[in-house]
Structures are given as structure tokens and as C-alpha cells.
């Protein structure tokens, strides 16, 4: 049988090989044994029932919670010439009847339904006339109150399952904690079933949590190093989506908003533009993303704290589906935590308990100084064993060295002074790197002694340094990306009386085309480390060449 399954994989779906666990699950189903499949989003759950459906004589029923998900799948199957249809409220009476007739005549291999359609008497009667071989429940976590989108209708499946005594039951989900898993097994009576648990570790996702200080500024910095990369920014509220969208637009970003308050037409259009790469960024509430299968999402940023680990995991799961590196950043603040706590306090009973547990688990992830993969995988019941994943901020910071950055700080600070403390970090970096931009030339800043003295660093590095100088209170700034002015402490640096130390945050430095070209296996080799080492060597070389005091372009401080 599995040979035939492989044949379908190659010749109907056009894929070379099974993904992890697909073959095992399909074998189990073809043996007519029940199964629970827990596989991350994008892992390839659909094939686990689509291939058996083609090999069974009878009908395969697929219960799915969302009409849009059903529609996408059915359309795709029809393109492969597979007789698949759905029954739901979006069909006209005529279409509905035609689909019913096709089921009755045994022309259909796969029937997609929402649970509420399945519960209807006429549906049950129709299906009673059919030989149902496989009863599939997709997004099976909806059955559990402990899951993140509980659907009371899913509860009815317990009863309905009895209608199909000869059918194998296959339940699939991407989000099942041990607790939810138990619920699914209990409710669906998967007593003798086997559970297939795929690893939830997405090795190509770089995980990072940053303190939310000046979120707009942080976002702009993050985007600055990700030009042309496709990405999603999640916000907590519609209002926040709108505000951030406007700000990003103002800064010239290619961006569209997405939230449930927009018309369906507009939502679809914005989503379509994002998928086709007509725009670079989508700013969205959690309403965005269900069922989206865009391979080249290079980053997912959380402007606000996600509601719980499950939704966080689902959302970051939309990044890096092509297996190349993708970056996931959460801006985390205590006030966000209080916002969520406030909503939890409005709830009661189990719902409140569940929400509280979710918050606690998520804070564990946000606040850990261990590898981020430990609490994340732990949440899904998996023990993460590697000491250093090399792909999260905490793992990288273990060997982040605090360096003497005095020379570079002096260059930057003196350049800020030379230009009258009227410019932002980007402009100052341009001068340091000898940019021939119009603005620089018009201002005569190519005549400055600080012009072109900072070529050894990429612009991104200078921006990071500037950030660090702001954080360490050498520089002052009134607004996001506003002009930088020097503090008294900075004058001490310029006078050579104080040294500047810091560890530049490496996780944001290596980006752009280089990051795109890497393959997953190279990602595993932790390329960030070696690139940074190269940079560091280069800097050392440079420092060695220069006599001390390194950069005596001291401004006229009198
Ligand atoms: P899930 O439901 O687990 O989130 P899907 O079934 O939607 O994932 O599959 C995600 C993507 O992976 C789809 O584009 C699908 O065509 C692709 N895919 C699934 N199985 C394979 C495979 N064996 N080889 C290559 N691509 C696959
Ligand atoms: Mg799916
Ligand atoms: Zn790690």
C-alpha cells in the first residue's frame, strides 16, 4: 500500500519525498487504525489524509473549522483533478444540491465540511447512504477548552463519529499541549489510536525578545536591516495596527494593514498583495494568517505581547516556510503583560484559569535567560536537549563579548558634534561612511574631518552603536529617529577621560542577501557567529593599526 501512496505523492501531488511522519501516519491510516497527528503548521498534515483518500474505495470526510481553509484546499485538489468538494453556507442552493448529488452518486473522494454542516439532519441522512472510509478532523484542538480556539460545535463530533462505525478516525492539529492532546483523545474516543508527534522545533527561525522601550523606533531599526524582505508585524489591537501602519507608510515602507475592522474586500486585497510580494510588510492583528502558505516570509515581529504561546508559535510558524532563515522578534513590556492580565480578569471559571495558565507559560518564554527553545518546546511537551541552539538571542548572548568600543564611539560622537547635533543616526552613519548622497554633499558635510572615517563598519553597525550610546546615556534624543545630542558623559568620552564598553547586539546585524542565500543546513552551522567573528577580527586589525588615542578629532568643546 505504501508504494501506492508514494506513487500518488510523486505523480498526483508532484512531491519527491515524504516529510517527517507523513509516511508513518499514512501507513497507519491505510491499515485502518485511528491516529492523532500533532505536527507544526506547515508540516504537511493535509497529505496525511489526502493520499489515503485517493487509495480508499469509499468517501473521506474532512471536518475543518474555517470556510476559507476548506475552499483553498478543495480548489487545490480540484486542480490536481481530485474529486473533492465542500458543503457549506457559501454555496448557492443550486451548487449545494449539485454537490449533494455528486456525493450521493459516489463521484466524490473527499468531502469537506464544517462541524455545523455535518450536524444537520439532511447531511447525516446523505452520509448514511455512503461508505465512509476515513473520518478526518483537521484543527482538532478546536475540540478542547484548553486549546486556543475552542469551538463548541466540535464537541458534537463525539456523537457524529458513531454514524461511521467503519471509518478510521484521523485527528490532526498543530497546537496540542499534553492537556489538549488528552482532551482530543477522550472526546473522540481514540482509545487504541497511535499518536504521531512531530518535532516542533523550527530550526531556521531566529527567536528574539527585546525590551519594549521605544517600539516605533525599534521597529524602524528592525526594518532598516530588512529591506525588501517580506514580513508580518502583529499588533494587539486594530487601533495599534492603524497607527503603526500610518507611521511605517510615512517612513516610506511598502506596507498594508489587516484587521477584522476592514471590509472583507480590502482585507482580501491586502492579503493578496502581500502574498504576491506587491507589498513588503503587512501590519495585522491575529486575524491575519490562518491558512496562509507563503514560503518566503523572512520575519514575524510582535509589536505587542502575543496572547499565548500557541498563537505566538502559530504566528512565527508563518515565517521561513522555505527552510531559509527567518527572524522572529517580540517587543516585550510589563505594561503589555498588564493589559493581558486586565482582559483575563474579566473572565471567569475555567476560561479564566486557562487564560492565566497561558499567560504564565508565555511569560516563561519571554523572561527566560535559558535558550528560548527550552520553554517553547517544553510547552508542547518536548524536551529540548541541545545546549546552545545558536538561533536565539539568549544562546548568542552567552558568548557575546563586551568590547571596548571607545574608538567607534568617539568617531560617532564627534561626527554628531561636527554636524551641530541636528541629525539622526542614519545621517551620521552616512557621513562616517563617506556617503555621496545629495543631502550630504549639499550640506557640505563631505568636507568634515569626520567624513569617511568609518568605512570599516556597515551602516547597520553604526546604527546599533548609536542605539547603544542612547541606552547608555551618551546620547539624547527627544523623539524616535530624532536628532541626537550629546550628554555631559559623552564629552568625557570625547576628551578621552572615559571609555565606552558594550556588546553590540549581533542578532540583528547579519541580514539582507547574505541571510537569504543561506540554506537550512548552513543555518545550523550557526553562520551568525562566524560572520560576527570576521567583523570582530576586522575591527581588531583596524584598532591595531591605529595609535592611541585612536581618533583625536576632538570637537571644539569650548
Ligand atoms: P499543515 O496543514 O500541516 O500546516 P499543509 O498540509 O498545508 O501543512 O502543507 C504545508 C505545505 O507543505 C503545503 O504547501 C504542501 O503542499 C507542502 N507539502 C506537504 N507535504 C509535502 C511533501 N512531502 N513534500 C513537499 N511539500 C510538501
Ligand atoms: Mg492544515
Ligand atoms: Zn537558543
UniProtKB/TrEMBL annotation:
Keywords: ATP-binding, DNA damage, DNA recombination, DNA repair, DNA-binding, Helicase, Hydrolase, Isomerase, Metal-binding, Nucleotide-binding, Zinc. Its cofactor is Zn(2+); Mg(2+). Residues 215-363 form the Helicase C-terminal domain. Its EC number is 5.6.2.4. GO terms for molecular function: 3'-5' DNA helicase activity; ATP binding; DNA binding; four-way junction helicase activity; hydrolase activity; metal ion binding. The keyword Metal-binding applies. It catalyses: Couples ATP hydrolysis with the unwinding of duplex DNA by translocating in the 3'-5' direction. One of its GO terms (cellular component) is bacterial nucleoid. GO terms for biological process: DNA recombination; DNA repair; DNA replication; SOS response. It is an enzyme of class 5 (isomerase). Belongs to the helicase family. RecQ subfamily. This is DNA helicase RecQ. It comes from Fodinibius halophilus.
